[in-house]
């Protein structure tokens, strides 16, 4: 039979069959005088087995090793290893679903610790307050999340001061970077940052720092630059 007929029979594409030839899973049959490959029953059986093993999750290299062992002993070992790997994946999925269930209950996409921190913060209107909360939500990606959350919770400025700083930053939305209000606000913002949370030297050229500054208007970004350099 021709490759198209073989493909229809085993429910595979001709491209997949040629790929299996290339990977050494299926020997290429001899060609007839007309140039077409001539496939037989053995090819049907081998392709059916390849399809079954790949559907079980074996890689093509593992399938090739399994097909090379006529007694099936290597195949058994591969299937046992695959079963163990699936068991590990199931355990990991169960753990992720357990964490997700907590987030669903809280209608939040952040951890309970960060959710509690955000719940205790003021939520004044404006882009600055929204950006601040989004940046805090990124704490879930930080390895030192617990330490940072604890420091913020214990030493964060009171709600009135936080709202006042956000309001003053909002007022600079249309101001130039050399606005006279920039330096005083930067000093007040630096004093409001909990001790120990700002490194001795801030890398303003770090991609994350650059992204944050680019999200702000010129005067607002200058306030943040000066505060981080204080």
From TrEMBL:
Gene Ontology molecular function: DNA binding
Protein name per UniProt: DNA-binding transcriptional MerR regulator
Protein source organism: Kibdelosporangium persicum
Nuclease found in the keyword field: no
UniProt cross-references to SUPFAM superfamilies, sorted A to Z: Putative DNA-binding domain
Annotated InterPro entries: DNA-bd_dom_put_sf, MerR-type_HTH_dom, MerR_fam
Signal peptide feature range: none
Domain HTH merR-type: 1-69
Any matching Pfam family: MerR_1
Gene3D superfamilies: 1.10.1660.10
UniProt feature coiled coil, ranges: none
Keyword vocabulary terms for this entry: DNA-binding
